[in-house]
Structures are given as C-alpha cells and as structure tokens.
Amino acid sequence: MQSKIRGFSRRRGATLFLAIAAALCLGVLSLLFAMKQNRLPMLQSYFSNPWILVLNLLPGVLLAVLFFALFGSAAPAFAATGAVVMGCTWVNWFKLQFRNDPFVFEDVLLVKEAGNMAGKYQLFVPKGLVLTVLCIVSGTVFLYVFARWKPSRRERIAAGVIALALLFPLRALYFSNAVYSEHTQNNGLINQWDATQVYQSKGFVYPFLYSLKAATAPAPEGYSAPEAAARLASYPNGEIPEGKKVNIIAVMLESYCDFTDVPNAPEVSPSVYAPLHALEEEGISGKLVTNIFAGGTINSERSFLTGFPTLPTFNQATNSYVWYLRSQGYRAVGSHPGYEWFYQRGKANANMGFEEYLFQEDHFGALAEGGIASDDILFPELMRLCDGEREPYFSFTVTYQGHGPYPDGENVWGGDFIVNNGYSEREYNILNNYFGSIENTSRNLEALAGHLRQSDSPTVLLVFGDHKPWLGDNESVYQSLGMPVACDTPEGFLCHYSTQYLIWGNDAAKRALGRELRGDGPTIGPSMLMCTLFDALGWEGPPFMQEQRGLMEAGVTMYHAVAKNVLMDGELYDLPELPAPVRFLVQDYFCDAYYERKHFAY
Prior knowledge:
The chain is α/β, with parallel strands linked by helices. The protein folds into 2 domains: about 1-215, no CATH class; about 225-600, 3-Layer(aba) Sandwich (Alkaline Phosphatase, subunit A), CATH 3.40.720.10. About 55% of the residues lie in helices and about 10% in strands. An 8-stranded mixed β-sheet has the order 4-3-5-1-6-7-2-8, with helices on both faces. Strands 9-10-11 form a 3-stranded antiparallel β-sheet. A hairpin with a 2-residue loop joins strand 10 and strand 11. Helix 2 runs parallel beside helix 5 (about 75-100) and helix 2 (about 10-30) packs antiparallel against helix 7 (about 125-145). It is globular.
C-alpha cells in the first residue's frame, strides 16, 4: 500500500491535479466567508453565476502556480496560497463585522492604521476562522503526502512565466466596469443601493482585485490631458479682493450628526443639539451626503479640501483649495488631536498645502497627559492658536472625540441624554454615550462661536460632520430602533450617508463681505462643500472650482464615489440616466479633476 501511495504521489499528473483542486477549494472557502450574513444562500448565488465563480477562483489557482514555481513543491505552495487568500478573506470578514466596510486594496497601504484601530474593538475567534486554519493545515499535510512530484528548474521557470504572462490580459477583465456592473450583477439577496453589500455579492477575491483599479487611479473614460487643460484655461483664476479676505476656521466633527429629523431616532435631551440649532438660525446650513458610513474619515476631509470626486493617495504635492488659499496670501494651518501617522495625515496634509499641522505627538499629547485630547481641550486650544495667527488664515481642524465604538457596559458621561424608551441596557449605553459626547461637542462649538462673536477679526466658521456614527456592530442599534438607514430606497440611501454642515460668520466678517451669511444651503457632497463656502462668501475661486460651480448650477450637487450615482435637483440618478448635456458636464468634471490630480500648479 505504501509503495502504491508513493508511486501515485510522485506522478506529475496526480500532483498537478491535486494542487489545482486544492487551490480551487481555497477559492470556495473564501467565497463561503465573503458575506457577513446569509452565507449559504449567497454561496449558492455565487455558483449560479459563472462570472463570479471563475473571477474569484482563478486568482487563487494562478497564485498557487506562482508559489509552486517558487518552492518547487505542492505542499508549501498551497500553504502560502492559503495564507494570502484566506488571510485577506478574514481581514475582510472582520472589517465587515466591525465597520460594515469591505477590505479594499488601498487598505493594504494603511496596515499601521488598521492595527491601531483593531485594538479598539473586541476581537474574537469565530469558528469559521478555526475551520479555515484546520483546512489549510490539513490540506498542506495531504499534499505533502499525496503530491510529491518535483518539477525541474526549467519547468518551474516556464510555469512562473506563463502565470505572470496571464496577468496582463486578465487585468483588462478584472478592471472592466462592464464585468463588474453587468456580468457579475447578483442583487437577489442584497440591497442594490448598498455599495458594501454589492461588494459582497461578488465574492471577495474578485471585488478586492477590482478595487486595485481605484487605488492605481486609471484615467476616466474619454480623458485627454490637452482637452482638460483647455477647459480649465477657459476660466480665469479668481482673485480674492483684499478687503474681503476673511479668516476661515473649518472644523470637521467626528461622527457628529443631527438625528432630529431621522425617523425612529431616540428622543434626546434638548441640550444635545440646542447650540447647533441656534447657530443654524444665524447662519447657512444644509445636508451633507458623505461617501462613508461609521468610518473612513479621510474621505470627507480630503474631498472637502480638494473638490475631487475620487481621491488620490497624496504621496506627492497635489492641487487643493489649500494651495489656492495660500496663493491668495492666506496662511494654511490645522490641527488634529490624533496621531500624525494615522491615515498618513502628516504627509498628506503637507502635500495638500498646509504649512503647519499639529498632532498628538508634537502638541496635543502634552495637553492631554499623553493621550488623545478631548473637545474640552481641543476647542479652547483652537481658539488660542487662531488668536495668535497671522491674518488672513485658513485653519482646518479634525476632531477625535465622538469616535466609535461607544461603551455598551457603562454610562461614561454621567448623565441621561436620551429618553429610555424600552431599550436594552446595551442599546441605552451605546446611545447615551454617543449623545453625551455630542452634547459636549455642541457646548464647545457654542463656546467657539461665542469667542468669535466677540472678536474684531473678520472670521467665518465652517462646521460639518464627517459621517454617521457607529451604533453597534452590523448597524445593530440602527436596526433595532427602526431608523431608515438601509440603502434599498433613495430615502434610506440619503439617510444612511447624510450629516450636516453649517456656515456662520461673526459681525466683522459680514461687514467685510457685505453679506448676511444666513439661509438654507443646498444638499451637497463633501467635494462640493468648499465651492458652497466660496459661493456664500462671494468668492470666485480657482478654475476647477468655477467648473464645479457650473455643475452645481446644472443641478448636480453630489457625486457618490462608492455608489457611483449623483444627486441632481434632489433626486438620485445613476450616471447613464442623466440627461445628455448634464452627463457630459459630469464627465468633464471627472476628467478635469484627474488632470488637476496629475498636474501640480503651485
């Protein structure tokens, strides 16, 4: 018997068959854990769509061939393939559980950030993870016993070259928008408006590889650098008049969202939002439809600072409205009580034009006894810093207080900020701790406005929330209360992604600008927020902003980078559904934004 096994294991055909079969099994195992809910029905749906099945299984086979060529043995090739494929699959699974956000290629560049954030959640070892490890170990042992044929050096080189050569034609297939949107459409078990569920409906390996397209930033369809340059050159570079150069303090508030008008939201204490509502009565306010939910803060802040519909990595100097303001004589500064390395903010902010940006390491840690500064520390320090700035200045602060998850086992704010309408203890603590944080932020916002109200320096305050808050894993508290954040309807989609913004000016700013700065603002996306601010101030802005303004005048006020739809005249449209003239304007906007990203002007 042993001699028969030995003879079988050393056959070329047997080894290759078992190695490929094992790689296919890894692909199926990855599909099993690609969806955080309804796993078995979703697995069946994958098998009913040949496109999804092949696009998810083929990369594992090619990777196994590459490792086989590298190691010259089936067993270690399988172990290495399993570590890569299933390791990424489980990163995706945990990210979905905690953030309702899939693992995409750009996350690979943020490994340090991911490790830091993982420590803030209660990690656990699910049975599926144990099963995965057992499968990889047993598969490795099985191949070690039954697949022992060793290829020659020439055969290994040939196999590696063939596998690598296949990557080039497959790139077009995996990056195809038509394949992603049409051939792999699998909406039977999901909400088609929910980009996270759409990602899961296609498996994991395939949509992860498709996300590489966004990370490498291919040019938009129809892009021509000379044509984009000509369009932008048709606009004059708007100069800010000397007498109207007011100071700007922009503050992006972590997870700050006004739930007042959200159906089935908790009944909160009047003190939670009273300061915000009072300032809204004095200023310009509107809804902000972000690209993110419960995480991904940098999308909102960098969309605001650049006006770009999709974002680059900011690894080099990149055009932004910060650079434009500096070209107009403004000093550009900012602060964040978190760490400089998180989201690579230190490097990215410098490349977007900030002359100075203060972080935990070099400033706020000393004020917070080595920790992360709360709003009670951050806001008074912001006032002090701005009072000492050379004018005119643009200051952009990103808060940290309010970041989830919120404690579910105790009341950390020492008060009752919501009415307990029969909530479980866990639900009550999550909600009360969130709204307790919001109440504290609102009071600090009120103090900042009060400080500016007494100042003779003309200053405009812009405040906006980056995204809706985390309220339990898998949106559990939202669902328990019946808040309409499911993306299966346009109303739910807008509720899911919306926060708010406020533009407020002190009397000195109103006199300098000759404007009241009061009224209802449009519903916009974060990439349109700076343009909306400039409109309120009566500033023309740089050529790219003037092009944005034309798009807004045509009714388009938001492009959603995840769902890839637009808001026009208050209604959601997929891009192909737009009237042709508007669709062409949107396409020009994409192309010119890409040009701006690639051609630094300052």
